[in-house]
Design a protein that fits this description.
The structure holds two protein chains of two kinds.
Chain A (H helix, E strand, L loop, with lengths): L3 E12 L2 E12 L3 E5 L6 H8 L7 E6 L2 E3 L4 H7 L1 E4 L11 H5 L8 E2 L2 E2 L1 H14 L16 H13 L5 E5 L7 H16 L3 E5 L3 H7 L2 E6 L2 E7 L5 H9 L20 E10 L3 E9 L3 E6 L5 H8 L7 E6 L8 H6 L2 E4 L3 H5 L6 H6 L3 H4 L8 H14 L16 H14 L4 E5 L7 H16 L3 E5 L3 H7 L2 E6 L2 E7 L6 H8 L1
Parallel strand pairs in A: 3-10, 3-11, 6-9, 9-10, 15-19, 15-20, 17-18, 18-19
Antiparallel strand pairs in A: 1-2, 1-4, 4-5, 7-8, 11-12, 13-14, 13-16, 20-21
Helix pairs in contact in A: 5-6, 14-15
Chain B lengths: L4 E3 L2 E3 L1 H23 L7 H26 L7 H18 L3 H27 L3 H20 L4 E2 L12 H19 L1 H11 L1 H6 L4 H27 L1 E2 L12 H12 L6 H22 L3 H20 L9
Antiparallel strand pairs in B: 1-2, 3-4
Classes of the chains: A alpha/beta, B mainly alpha.
Chain lengths: 499, 321
């Protein structure tokens, strides 16, 4: 039997009146990939953030290789052999790639108080080369790189010193194929070296494929630890949700005809360097999917339809002939948009749930004198937050305190409250647990039936196949294929058009 | 994806682009006034004296840059310069400590003011603008009390830092120290890290509050050096009250904006130095023209806004606060 690497003993943590973790106890072994799963808000990130020094636990102990550890910050945790790749962006603008990699560990390059920048850059270049990321230059400012490349830098930062425990918190959904493969490679390397990976993911097939054992949390309480080889996806869902989750995850219909009525017409839309000559029509009551590799330009299509692209050429026309060239016009014509980058582009993080939900509907909520009534706003936000089953103390709670899935619910609640007719949803289930995913799919299906039209952009091929009436595949910024809903369609058909 | 761009088949580094832009600004601002008033503006000798005058504010601005990069502000710059200059003058003159008194007195006073600014800001958790505005009133009163309401004059034998080469030597030393701190110590890295994302910086084990206080101390010390140069250049200092010292804030702050605008070119310190030079060219250009002060201020304000706007070139979609 393998030795215990980490003992999690009676860990508790609360935020205000919310109990995020309640006496959580379980063991993690040396040389294993140990998955941590649970619904959004189940306490997974709170637990690993406490282990990595980002949060301070209220009570309980972490025992690493027989010794109690209580890191006060990430550098402390690194020194104990614990490292973390966080869900959102963990690199800092204003610093170079090398400075980001060694942030908090500069002392290795400092002599008599003077930092040897050349030595730091050389070491970073060497590491980037080892990982196969030569195209990322150590001396470049980090802001010159896109989200995915910055995540690759985080992988180097978190793993170069061979940590005893690496925590990967819902990172894979932010990465395309190449990035994911690199992350998997690093996970396997760490395991082969006898060290441990704690892997948080909502992608259950990925969890089953990559992990040796799986611990399930629900509402901050430890539920069970199981061997990956001894459980299937449905079994995990049952443990996560506490009841059987129907296998009917996606839409069941295949033969329904989509209306001929065009609600949005996109003609020859280009954004220099990102997308070229994109044309399509969106019909009433249709779910139109966009798929492709992460850098295929599909995310820009969503922005272009919402009037949020810069330097856009071509036209986006609403059913009444109005040209959608800016966001206010889009919103005025009942178009909604949720960004893939939820924290930076969709939510006002340091504002309440109420403010976030009411934001685009303030005109409708104000009286004849254009004054706002606090109670009316609160009731409005409360109604739609509850429609989305948002886990919260009240609508006055700050959005920044919510888990990833509940943040997404707030974004969707905002547009449901606005009663938008066209929804452009970019990666609507990114970082979302199985239960909320099911809710979102159900919501989309209901909206479709009500005659609302949806553009769904996703890197998850199965949800595109399961939910869309049509799927447009982008490759290198251009349309490379269009497929109609078909019960016999499989991922390989899409992949063939993507690469 | 990369910062550098192909131009005519050759790569122009970001830094070279930055220097070319600054050079262009110097040439354009000089050229405009030279055309309008060719006789009494812009000779090589004149340009050297404009540059000498610009050194004063440039020294203060490179220190203030540490505070501004972290996202904080300081409205007590003018009061600090005034108080530091008066204390330096008192040490040098009244206590008979000469140059040692002038330099040590001014720099220590500046650093102490910075320490107070930083400590109050961190401990009271009040926005830096408000804290430093309140403290500026106190510094003005202290300066007035020390000076006894009398103009403090630096004896002529202690004014080596008011002319070449003393002023240049002191300024160059200050610039080198700022450059060293920013690029070759942890302080520089942490300054940028805190300015970028305080929460992540804290998680990286950086003592955010300690470094914020340190930024104010560094800024204060550099303002102390600026005080030495200012009183040596002008030979005396009057301790004004009622926030009148705020008028001294403008020029170092504008230089700092140049530094922030050129940060992306990887050359904030040279940008501050050359930026202050550009500001002085415009200032002296108006004097040569004999323009009324009000008109000078209006046009200078617009000119600086245009310069910063053109050089900052914010990416489309980037949020500016």
């Amino acid at each position: 039997m393998s030795e215990i690497r980490l003992e999690v003993k009676d860990i508790s943590k609360h935020f205000g009146i919310t109990k995020a973790l309640v006496d959580v106890s379980f063991n993690i072994l040396k040389g294993e990939i140990h998955a941590l799963i649970g619904e959004n808000g189940s306490g997974k990130s709170t637990l690993t953030n406490s282990l990595a020094g980002i949060y301070q636990k209220d009570s309980g102990t972490f025992i690493l290789d027989g010794k109690e550890v209580n890191p006060q910050n990430q550098v402390d945790a690194n020194n104990e052999g614990i490292s973390i790749i966080v869900q959102e962006l963990g690199t800092l603008d204003g610093l170079t790639v090398a400075e980001n990699i060694f942030l908090g560990h500069e002392d290795a390059f400092v002599k008599f108080g003077i930092k040897n920048t050349n030595a730091m850059n050389r070491k970073a270049t060497e590491l980037l080369k080892q990982y196969g990321f030569e195209r990322i230059k150590a001396a470049d400012m980090i802001e010159n790189y896109n989200f995915e490349d910055r995540k690759l830098v985080e992988i180097v930062k978190a793993t170069y010193f061979k940590p005893k425990i690496l925590v990967i918190d819902e990172t894979t959904t932010a990465l395309s194929g190449e990035g994911r493969e690199e992350l998997y490679k690093q996970m396997k390397r760490i395991k082969e070296e006898g060290n441990t990976v704690i892997f948080i993911s909502h992608d259950l097939p990925e969890v089953l494929r990559m992990s040796d054992s799986i611990t399930v949390l629900r509402d901050g309480i430890y539920i069970d630890t199981v061997k990956s080889s001894e459980i299937d996806e449905d079994g995990l869902k049952k443990l996560m949700v506490g009841r059987e989750v129907s296998g009917k995850y996606y839409r069941a219909d295949y033969d329904e005809e989509v209306s001929d009525e065009v609600v949005m017409k996109v003609e020859n839309v280009s954004v220099p360097g990102i997308i070229s000559d994109i044309s399509f029509e969106l019909h009433k009551g249709e779910i139109l999917g966009f798929g492709g590799l992460s850098e295929s330009g599909m995310h820009e299509v969503g922005k272009a339809c919402f009037g949020a692209s810069f330097d856009r050429e071509g036209s986006v026309t609403f059913s009444d002939g109005t040209k959608i060239n800016d966001i206010p016009t889009a919103i005025a014509h009942s178009i909604a948009y949720t960004s893939k980058d939820r924290d930076n582009e969709s939510l006002v993080m340091n504002q309440s749930i109420r403010d976030n939900i009411c934001l685009p509907s303030l005109n409708e909520l104000s009286n004849k004198l254009r004054l706002l009534n606090d109670k009316k706003l609160k009731n409005f936000a409360d109604k739609f937050a509850k429609t989305m089953s948002t886990k919260m103390q009240s609508v006055d709670q700050f959005v920044s305190n919510l888990s990833g899935g509940n943040k997404q619910k707030v974004v969707l609640a905002r547009w449901i409250g606005k009663d938008s007719d066209i929804l452009v949803l970019d990666s609507p289930t990114r970082g979302i647990d199985v239960k909320v995913k099911q809710d979102i799919y159900q919501l989309m299906d209901n909206m479709r039936k009500e005659g609302k039209s949806i553009i769904m952009i996703s890197e998850e091929l199965m949800e595109l196949i399961g939910m869309c009436d049509r799927i447009i595949i982008l490759k290198d910024g251009r349309i490379n294929g269009e497929l109609k809903r078909d019960r016999n369609m499989d991922e390989n058909v899409l992949i063939a058009k993507m690469v | 994806m990369k910062a550098s761009k192909e131009t005519g088949g050759r790569k122009l580094s970001a830094r070279t682009k930055g220097y070319l832009l600054l050079l262009l600004m110097v040439v354009v601002s000089w050229g405009i006034f030279k055309i309008i008033t060719p006789d009494n503006f812009g000779s090589p000798k004149n340009m050297l004296s404009y540059f000498e005058a610009s050194l004063l504010a440039a020294v203060g601005a490179v220190g203030f840059y540490f505070v501004m990069v972290m996202g904080m502000f300081d409205f007590s710059i003018g009061a600090n310069i005034m108080l530091s200059a008066i204390v330096g003058c008192v040490f040098a003159n009244r206590f008979g400590l000469g140059y040692v008194g002038l330099i040590v007195g001014s720099i220590l006073t500046g650093a102490l003011v910075g320490l107070l600014n930083g400590s109050f800001y961190v401990k009271l958790r009040i926005p830096s603008m408000i804290v430093t505005t309140g403290l500026a009133l106190i510094y003005e009163s202290v300066a007035n009390y020390i000076a006894g309401g009398v103009e403090q004059t630096l004896p002529s034998d202690l004014r080596a830092f008011g002319q070449m080469p003393g002023n240049l030597i002191l300024a160059v030393i200050a610039f080198l120290i700022a450059f060293l701190l920013l690029n070759f110590t942890k302080i520089g890295t942490y300054t940028y890290a805190i300015g970028s994302n305080e929460f992540v910086a804290k998680n990286m084990g950086i003592k955010v509050n300690a470094y914020k206080i340190l930024a104010f101390v560094i800024s204060g010390a550099f303002l102390g050096v600026m005080a030495v140069l200012t009183i040596s250049y002008g030979s005396s200092m009057v301790a004004v009250t009622g926030m009148a010292s705020m008028s001294r804030n403008f020029v170092p702050t504008m230089g700092c904006f140049f530094g922030l605008a050129f940060k992306k070119y990887g050359m904030p310190i040279p940008a501050i130095i050359i930026g202050e030079f550009v500001i002085n060219i415009i200032f002296f250009g108006f004097i040569a023209l004999g323009a009324p002060t009000a008109i000078q201020d209006v046009i200078t304000g617009f000119a600086l806004l245009i310069i910063v706007m053109l050089t900052t070139k914010v990416a489309k979609g980037e949020i500016v606060k």
